[in-house]
Amino acid sequence: MEAYVDAGTAIDFRSLSDLSGKAPAVAKNLDYDRLLKARDAEPQNWLTYYGAYDGQRYSPLDQINAGNVKDLKPEWVFQAGSYGMHSGASTYSFEAAPIVVDGVMFVSGHDNWLWAIDAKDGTELWRYKHAAPYDVSLCCGNVNRGVAVAQGLVFMTTLNAHVVALDAATGAVVWDQVFGDVRAGESATVAPLVIKDMVLVGSSGGEFGVRGHADAFKLETGERVWRCYMVPKPGEPGSETWPSEGEAWQRGGGNCWTTPTFDPDLNLVYFNTGNPCPDFDGAVREGDNLFTDSVVAVDADSGQIKHHYQYTPHDVWDYDSTMENILFELDGQKLSAHFDKNGYLFILDRTDCSLVRVVPFVDRITWGEIDAQGKVTAKVFPDKEGDPVHFWPGPAGAKEWTHAAYSPKTELLYCPVQDIGATATRRRREFKESIPYWGAGVAVDGEDIAGSISAFDPRTGQETWRWSHEQPMCASVLATGGDLVFAGEPSGRFNALNATSGELLWQFQCGSGHHSSPSTYTVDGRQYVAVPTGWGGWVEGFLPAQIGGRAGNALFAFALPE
Amino acid sequence: MSGTTEESPAVAGLRRQNGTTLGRVLGSGNIAEAEEGSDGRMKATIRINPDELVWDPGVLVMPHGGEIELTLINDDLNTHCAVLPSNGDTKFIWLVNHSKGTAVLDLDGPGYYWYGSKTGNDEGRGLTGAIVVSGDTPPEAKLDRPPQPQP
């Protein structure tokens, strides 16, 4: 028989492209001191997930401003694309917040992609692809929310619950740690956060009956520093809020699937926890169910819980509190602000997580009521088997995980608002590991829906202005020193609003809906606004009327004409 | 119910090209397990048989995560290629008619990964396979809770 032709050895797919495989070593000297001063000392960069530890999603850059934003144009587009089969094939979405360090952008995409991109012209510099199991359990789509960069490394979580550290100049793997159990239904979508010499991550899987946790690893080696469970074991503080008998705590949820904020003076990390599990069947987990649906202030060095505030005790509406706690100072007070899925804006004293103020921020709230002292009264909930119950806000919340912003210049909070209800019918089911564990059938409204970008005065909780929209607003907002608030729509339009009046000043159609976190930066003195676009994720939860909207997978960078 | 164990022509036609369908439906093909040497290294051979347009095996089972060395043989009378999952980047190899090559993959598991071909509609005709990684999550990453009921 004729000898086989020698086909050689399989090579990296990326080697058959024009990418160089190298980026300038911009992250080499990016240390903790620089991260502490990120926004104030380096406004040209966007160094952390929120731009700074305080989670304000504010940039003082003002080259693009209310006076000239009408001239803003797309400068370049990065097409992420896709090939072959991937997990969550119909639910992928581009949800990341681009990080920018001295002219190099680091951004993650669906299916464990990570790219280094020239932030000036959009040229791909290197890419990393962590192989993702096709069958990994994903509650809410094949997504990733971003990366962290420090000490010459880039950190990303993977769908199969690893955290990987890559050389920021080449994309080569430096270390790889597993921090979740995919056989239990855990996964990871969170953007890591670097604090001191550690990288912090959290698990996803709250719809599969897991026990939520946050983890810290040494950033140089990947060695575990601590793990903090957000549902206590029997006998631990908070365990009195779970049934004293039975297994409810073992499947209690409370996942940390969005990035925390950090107060270096208090040395406290403000984790945001997800729903208790099963989401809608509260009868199998009587009690408040700490520390689900809470802000949990954790000592950065030890991982010990120091303070907490529970936004929705004994949640039976799927009201995760995973969205950010924005840290800011007003009149000498150290405060935090949090727009919860349950429709209320909470202002806390972040030194001890005590309530300062609570006010509703959406028009329709029927699930219950929270009074000025924070007393919660549940009114409408799925408590009878097979009995449909309609309530506002629906399980995607009056604000989803996508982030609000705070401008220290205007002293206003800016929130993407979703005014959309849902019907839940309790359907009890037996728990089995790795199988979805909701305890209800759920249908989110397709009609009679609305949205807005709303501005609030944190001193009073009063709404200052509202830019109304016919659909829920499902993307993070960005506030800038140019008196602008950027906000993407489900339709694909990317908007710039006047930060003091809410007037629409500029709009660009990106071709696919927004469900990500835009950032801004400068290179060679020119300001850019970058936004990943690509409609997808848990659309059936936050806007099912647009589940047929155009998919996409592109990052746009905008700038003023030179 | 027909009361017989004989396959209908429609079912039988799913196991060849241009039968019931135009190509072979997803999940077609044989199942095989990778071999693990005394050094812990895993190996397997995957072929493309003449005019079948499926990987053989279509489902390859690895005993655990880690590196595996594949020998890839194209016995078909047309040119194909392999697009294979691996941590770091997808691996790619051209497989002209009557050729043989290798690929080293690094896969975590547990779970399964797709592999295919990036030529024409090879994947649609049948050249879509799965690499299954058995095993469990490392103990240090598991949840601190008692064993749970399984499906």
Commentary on this structure:
The complex is a heterodimer of chains A (562) and B (151). The mean pLDDT of chain A is 97. Helix content of chain A is 2%, strand content 37%. By secondary structure, chain B is mainly β. Chain B is 5% helix and 37% strand. Chain B is built from 2 helices and 11 strands. In chain B, the strands form 3 sheets. In chain B, strands 2, 3, 4, 6 and 9 form a 5-stranded mixed sheet that branches. The mean pLDDT of chain B is 94. At the A-B interface, strand 1, strand 2, strand 8 and strand 12 of A face strand 6, strand 7, strand 8, strand 9 and strand 10 of B. Strand 2 of chain A pairs antiparallel with strand 8 of chain B, so a sheet runs across the interface.
Structure annotation, total helices of chain B: 2
- Pairing-aware structural class of the strands and helices of chain B? mainly beta
Radius of gyration of chain A: 22 Å
Largest interface: A-B, 58 and 55 residues
DSSP strand tally of chain A = 40
Number of strands of chain B: 11
- 3D shape of chain B: globular
DSSP strand (E) fraction of chain A? 35-45%
Order of helices and strands of chain B: HEEEEEEEEEEHE
The helicity of chain A comes to: under 10%
Q: Profile the largest sheet of chain B.
A: 5 strands, mixed
Strand content range of chain B: 35-45%
Q: Residue ranges of chain B: pLDDT <50 for 5 or more in a row? A: none
Major β-sheet annotation of chain A: 5 strands, mixed
Main features:
heterodimer; A: 562 residues; mainly beta; 4-stranded antiparallel β-sheet; B: 151 residues; 5-stranded mixed β-sheet; 4-stranded mixed β-sheet; 11 strands; 5% helix; globular
Quick structural overview:
The complex is a heterodimer of chains A (562) and B (151). Chain A is mainly beta and 562 residues long.
